[in-house]
Amino acid sequence: MVNNILVFGGNGFLGRRICQTAIERGFEVTSLSRSGTPPPVKSLWDKEWTGKVNWRRCDVLNPRSYSKYLERADNVVHSIGILLENSSYKAQINGQTAFDAKKLLQWGANPLNNNPNFTYDVMNRQSALTLAQEFAKPQYNSKLKTMTYISADRSFPGIPSGYIDSKRAAESGILQLEAELRPILARPGFMYDELDTSLGSLDFRSQLKNLLDLANWSNSKLLGRRVNCVNQLFRPTVSTQQVSRAVIQKIEDPTFRGVLELEDILNA
User: Which residue stretches, if any, does this entry annotate as coiled coil (predicted)?
Assistant: First the structure.
């Protein structure tokens, strides 16, 4: 019997690679997102595997919009979240619009008056708990189900504390459903896409990755990782492909449950 997996946010930066890896591992994959459309293809293989995914629309905050997909689901992955409470940052960091540091750093409790849901609490915590609580209901599959939440290793310098606080609050809420769901709480660090790196992309994300890698290398070679505060500040970067491989590996291992730390992701 082929396992199936629902990836909420499956057309996002990480979600697309989780869909890809699941397809390569023989899963039946459905991506659920606001648009219901596949991501832009970057290679011939992207074009091939995206054609094997069921791309569907839903509102993660409204279980009625996706309950029919949960009825035969073995696994769900929540790959939805925000780093800043500013809708422009994703386009800027991925090089889709011109980088504007002043605009990027204009975060606050709710900078988007026309979108009250674009907050840490709603996007990072509430959306995950709404999904987990719905999936935990007994009418969805009689056997133990897997709920994977894409959390974070820790916050980044300059990022409001609400980011990591909302991630940890979501983890805590999911763990309270451990009797009904097998929780996998993945904590990647700063992520990049291997395909972008191989193509020599010069977008903001790629440039930031290079800076973080240099800082991490300097900490290792020059400081010998002897200064704890520096160790906490500069953490290894990780590719979306590596995170996806680690996540699918743990989904396939019925004995694993709990936190998947950055070091475990890097060594998967």
Answer: none
User: Tens digits of per-residue pLDDT, 85-113?
Assistant: 875 545 544 554 444 444 443 333 333 34
Number of neighbouring beta carbons within 10 Å of residue 114:
6
Neighbours of 242 (CB within 10 A): 20
Q: Rounded to whole angstroms, how far apart are CA atoms 164 and 147?
A: 19
Which pLDDT belongs to residue 34? 94
The pLDDT value given to residue 199:
60
Q: Report the alpha-carbon angle 199-205-206, nearest 5.
A: 35
Residue 29 · residue 4 · CB < 8 Å: yes
Return the DSSP state at 126: I
Q: Return the H-helix or E-strand segment holding 220.
A: helix 204-221
The structure's pTM equals 0.85
Tell which wins on pLDDT, 190 or 200. 190
Q: Is residue 88 part of a domain?
A: no
Q: pLDDT tens-digit profile of 113-170?
A: 456 788 999 999 999 999 999 999 999 976 789 999 999 998 777 789 999 999 999 9
3-state DSSP helix/strand/coil percent for the chain, to nearest 5?
40, 15, 45
Distance CA 262, CA 246 (A): 10
Is 87 part of a structural domain of the chain?
Answer: no
For the record, the structure tokens of 15 come out as 């979600």
Q: Are 60 and 117 in contact (CB under 8 A)?
A: no
Structural domain containing residue 228? 194-234
Count how many residues are written for the chain.
268
The one-letter amino acid at 191? M
Say yes or no to pLDDT of 178 above 90.
Answer: yes
Based on the fold, state whether residues 154 and 222 are members of the same structural domain.
Answer: no
